[in-house]
Amino acid sequence: MDPSKGCPMLVTPSIRETPTDRADVYAFHIMGEVSEDDMEDMAERMNDVFDRHDKVSMLLIFDRYEGAETQAHFDWDVIRSRLRSVTKVEKYAVAKAPERAGKLVERFGKLLPLEARAFDDVDAAWVFVGARPVHTA
């Protein structure tokens, strides 16, 4: 449970939500291969977040990322969360993303009404979204 946000943290086999020191910043570690179920769980989480906030910032930190199952991108909740993110996300950062994904994020940041950046350095990505991780016992 993340007390600052009043809701349980998302934990799946390949996605682990990291608590932050700001109620409007959501951070996730992406590890291994993202399954269809993992992607759907994250989409449901973010759709819930979008229902409760006017604007949020997001940080995705890639760690030993092995890609995503092809069908993971075609679930309705996943598509809905991506569409909603255009108007609900203020800052979107990826850290240590595969080169192709990082370049895609940078391009979308120029086309969409949000700030999107890719970082090699995790600390710089945290600075960009204006938050820090909260370490729990």
From TrEMBL:
SUPFAM superfamilies reported for this sequence: SpoIIaa-like
Organism for this UniProt entry: Palleronia sediminis
Domain of life of the organism encoding this protein: Bacteria
Name of the protein in question: STAS/SEC14 domain-containing protein
One Pfam family named in its UniProt record: SpoIIAA-like
